[in-house]
Every structure is written in structure tokens, then in C-alpha cells.
Design a protein that fits this description.
- The protein has one domain: Alpha-Beta Barrel (TIM Barrel), CATH 3.20.20.
- It is globular, with a radius of gyration of 20 Å.
- The strands form 2 sheets. Strands 1, 2, 3, 4, 5, 6, 9, 10 and 11 form a 9-stranded parallel β-sheet that branches. A two-stranded antiparallel sheet has the order 7-8.
- α9 links the parallel β10 and β11.
- The protein contains 13 helices and 11 strands.
- The protein is an alpha/beta fold.
- It comes from Bifidobacterium psychraerophilum.
- Its EC number is 4.1.2.13.
- It is an enzyme of class 4 (lyase).
Length: about 350
């Protein structure tokens, strides 16, 4: 496996949009969870996306350091090295949910670093970055997106934007009770007018359709994936009518590359409809966190008297060796990644 080049990443996204499938985007917080994600993609014979949040990037640098750019670049370097051992699939690296207060300390420095890499004939460390403008009004959101899209072109990366607000909490960021949980076709037309549709830099759009971050039972989240179809249709019609212009190449019924956030507790039917309507990337975090930690808990409960020195005994070293429970956790998380690839239709479709 290789880490995607900018050209390969563009090919991945285009193939998913035209082929009617999506890539799981797996949040990682350590080399263990990174290895689990790589293992899962390889077992599923699927390309995919590995991403790190603002908190995850800080944690990756070491809790005594807590520096996001350091953690991000360390992850990228480690991923490039271990990825060489999985030659049959391609993985892109992405930074997730950068809110306005983190731009100057995280994504802007990374984009500047990557632009310098490109200027010196190297590949960028990451292949895409997310600007989470859900806490600012749409005009300001798109103003910042325009600036970041220009920087992304220099860095040969793809930008991800969020239009509206995803409910619940993501890494310390919580949507307000009156947040706009449903984007509109008018919002989409404004995005297309101000950012283009790939003519002035490639981007993915996370329009909101009732999404909620966190862990919920099926039925709690009230998704409207049909809204994504309305957004695509309205934009396609505006192109046909000459209301907006674009010379970019994309399927006429799917002008936008769409992203699905907050999918825990979603029904298979809602997920499938979202993908049919142009979702090419679905964030997977809560479920893989649980799969990893559940395996650790299972090991500890099953080996209670071996991982603890109970009543003055010495325990059993091979059972409290982190490699013991770590391998179980990685295998369990990898299994959940395989499940996501199968559900989203990317399994067995790694690009040749």
C-alpha cells in the first residue's frame, strides 16, 4: 500500500462518486489505532482515509507535549513507513474538524508546511484538511473556506468544508441547541457560486442533514439523506440553467463530493441513500473506538487475576504485556473497519 499522491487521491474520490460507493474515514489517536485501520483496509481490499482530530493530533505528540502540528507530522511520517508493507491498497491522510479557534495553530501551519514541501518537489504530508466553519455564519464560513482553498491548491491538497452544524459533541466541540442541523439547496448554490465546483480547487462538502456526533441507539438520530439528493439536483439544475458556471468534470447528477459526519446509530437504509446521493467519505470514530476498547476490557475481565497482582501474587506477565491486549484491540478495530468498508461499498474495490 502507498499513501495517496494528490493525483491518486483525486482518482479515489472521482471513482467513488461515479461508482456509487464511499470510503470509511477512520479517526486514529495512536500508532496502535493507525495500524488497526491499515489492517482493516487491507483485509477488506479497500482504499480508505485515515484522519486525526484536533485532540487526536495533540495526543499523538505525547500528553506532556500537546502540540498538534508535531503530532500530525509524526503520524504522517509513521503512516508512510508502515504503509509500505500493504502494497495493494491506497490510503489518504486527512485532518478532521478544525474549528476557527484552531486554524492558526494547526491547519494553516500544516498547509504552509505542505506548500513548502511541494515547492521543493515533495508530496504533501497530508492529502486533505477539514475546515469546520459550523460555529460561524455562512458568509464568514465561505470567506475562510476561499482562503483555505487557495492555500490548498498551493499545497496540492483537498479541502473539506462543513455547511450547517452537526449535533452532539466532537472532540470538545459541541453544536448549540439552535444549530442549523439541516442545510438547504440555497446553501449549496451559494457554496457553488463562491467556491466553484472544483474549477478553483477541489473540495468536499459536509452538508448537514440531521447528523449527530456521539454514540446513540438506532432511531435516535433523525437523518434526512434525501436532502443530499435535493442539494445535488438543485445544483445540477442551476448548472443546466446557467445560473452557476463550471468547467470541472463530474457526473451531471452529482456536482458535489459529499461527506457524512455523525453516522453512529444511523440505519443501513439511511447510509445507503446518502451514498447514492453522492457521499464519498463517511467518518467512522465512535464505533471503532468502542471496538478497540471493548476488546481491551474483555481481555482484562477474562484475565483479571493475571493482569493484576492480586493478594500479593505476581500475575502473569504475558497477559499484562501491552502487546497482548493491544493485538486483540487492533484485531477488533480492524474488524469494524472491514464492516464499514462492506457497508459503504468500498470493499474489494481498491484501485489498481
Amino acid at each position: 500500500m502507498t499513501i495517496a499522491t494528490p493525483e491518486r487521491y483525486a482518482h479515489m474520490l472521482d471513482a467513488a462518486r461515479s461508482g456509487g460507493y464511499a470510503y470509511p474515514a477512520i479517526n486514529v489517536t495512536s500508532t496502535q489505532t493507525l495500524n488497526a485501520a491499515l489492517q482493516g483496509f487491507a483485509e477488506a481490499e479497500s482504499d480508505g482515509i485515515i484522519q486525526v482530530s484536533v485532540g487526536g493530533a495533540s495526543y499523538l505528540s505525547g500528553q506532556a507535549v500537546g502540540e498538534r502540528v508535531t503530532g500530525s507530522l509524526a503520524l504522517a511520517a509513521f503512516a508512510r513507513e508502515v504503509a509500505k508493507r500493504y502494497p495493494k491498497i491506497t490510503v489518504a491522510l486527512h485532518t478532521d474538524h478544525c474549528a476557527v479557534q484552531y486554524l492558526d495553530g494547526w491547519v494553516r501551519p500544516l498547509l504552509a508546511y505542505e506548500a513548502d514541501q511541494v515547492a521543493h518537489g515533495q508530496e504533501p504530508a497530508f492529502q486533505s484538511h477539514m475546515w469546520d466553519g459550523s460555529t460561524v455564519e455562512l458568509g464568514k464560513n465561505l470567506e475562510i473556506a476561499r482562503e483555505l482553498l487557495d492555500a490548498s491548491q498551493a499545497a496540492h491538497t483537498v479541502l473539506e468544508i462543513e455547511i450547517g452544524a452537526v449535533g452532539g459533541e466532537e472532540d470538545g466541540h459541541r453544536a448549540s441547541p439552535n444549530a442549523k442541523l439541516y442545510s438547504t439547496p440555497d446553501d449549496a448554490l451559494r457554496v457553488a457560486r463562491e467556491l466553484g465546483l472544483g474549477d478553483d480547487g477541489r473540495y468536499m462538502a459536509a452538508f448537514t442533514f440531521g447528523n449527530v456526533h456521539g454514540a446513540y441507539k438506532p432511531g435516535f438520530v433523525k437523518l434526512r439523506p434525501d436532502l443530499l439528493g435535493d442539494i445535488q439536483q438543485a445544483t445540477a439544475q442551476a448548472l443546466q440553467d446557467g445560473v452557476i458556471d463550471s468547467t470541472a468534470d463530474f457526473p451531471e447528477d452529482k456536482p458535489f463530493l459529499l461527506v457524512f459526519h455523525g453516522g453512529s446509530g444511523s440505519s443501513p437504509e439511511d447510509i445507503a441513500l446518502a451514498v447514492r446521493n453522492g457521499v464519498v467519505k463517511m467518518n467512522i470514530d465512535t464505533d471503532t473506538q468502542y471496538a478497540f476498547t471493548r476488546a481491551v476490557a474483555g481481555h482484562m475481565f477474562a484475565n483479571y487475576d493475571k493482569v493484576l497482582k492480586v493478594d500479593g501474587e505476581v500475575g502473569e506477565k504475558k497477559q499484562y504485556d501491552p502487546r497482548s491486549w493491544g493485538a486483540e484491540a487492533e484485531a477488533a478495530m480492524a474488524g469494524r473497519v472491514v464492516e464499514a468498508c462492506q457497508q459503504l461499498g468500498s470493499a474489494g474495490r481498491a484501485l489498481k
